[in-house]
Amino acid sequence: TAEWLQIDLNDIASIHKAARYVEERYPKLDGLINNAGISGDMQKNPLELKSSELEQLAKVNFLGNFEMIKSFTPILSRNHGRILNVTIPATPIGSFNPLGYLASKASLNSMIKSFAMYYKKHEIPVEIFDVLSGGISTDLNQHQSGLLIRTVQE
Question: Which of 34, 65, 110, 114 could potentially form a cystine with 85 if both were Cys, beta carbons 3.0 to 4.6 Å apart?
Answer without folding.
Answer: 34
